[in-house]
Amino acid sequence: MKKGKSFIVSAVIAGFMLTAASVYAGNLGINGSTTVLPIAQKVAEAYMKEHPDVKITISGGGSGDGIKAIIDGTTDIANSSRDMKDKEIALAKEKGVTPVKHIVAYDCIIPVVHASNTVKDLTMDQLKGIYKGEIKNWKEVGGPDLEITVISRDTSSGTYEVWEEKVMKKERVFPGALLQASSGAVVQAVSKNKNALGYVGIGYLTADIKALTVNGVAGSKTTALDGTFPISRPLFMFTRGEPQGDAKNFLSYVKDPQKGQKYVEESGYVPLQ
């Protein structure tokens, strides 16, 4: 689904009053992943129309930032495109916090290129070779004789960490990659550079970029749910312990098939089944 350019790091819903920590009744703070951001925005807009006494503030900055905020108690809900790490869970426990994860949607991380690129498919090995800096020219993978501009998310991104785990097999992306702080920034960078290769969640696909298949499999609702797309994942919202009050009500709304899950699909992501 087409995504507007407003969905970039540190994006905040227009008209929402930004607070550092929405811990008071009637206020709810959500922080974290720019991948989950479009879902949170659409659901929050709908939720506040139905509950005008509740004010929701949303900011993006990466999954790591959201998880840190939930551990520190500076947000009510953390958006994350990855699960928490063992060291984050340990830090939370040290601070007396028991994070609870809520799966709110599913996603595919899809390699994307400039619309003019003739390449249609890359294997997992080819993707790893490109992101390690070993494959440097598109002609090596059946494309034009152009040097590949490698575009990656920064290391605070949950999308980056899933890419590192599933594609790189824990090896690091090579230093020559151009790092972007949000999914929206990746879309913009790839759309303006005919040499570029990047990766985004399925909800960020636009007509300005071209999605590639991986190992011959296209990222879609079906392949995300059945796991046949090799870079698929769940999307999370985390709370400090079992949610209470407004946080509980909001998360119930997000998971409701007739309410929040409708906006998950509108955002271009895969609803819960």
Structural write-up:
The protein has 273 residues and is of the alpha/beta class. The chain folds into two domains: 27-106 and 235-266, Periplasmic binding protein-like II (D-Maltodextrin-Binding Protein, domain 2), CATH 3.40.190.10; 107-226, 3-Layer(aba) Sandwich (D-Maltodextrin-Binding Protein, domain 2), CATH 3.40.190. The protein has nine helices and eleven strands. The chain has helices spanning 37-50, 63-72, 86-94, 124-131, 158-166, 183-191, 221-226, 245-255, 260-266; strands at residues 27-32, 55-60, 77-80, 99-114, 121-122, 149-153, 178-180, 196-201, 209-211, 213-214, 232-240. Strands 1, 2, 3, 4, 6, 7, 8, 9 and 11 form a nine-stranded mixed sheet that branches. It has a two-stranded parallel sheet with strand order 5-10. It is globular. Residues 1-24 have low confidence and may be disordered.
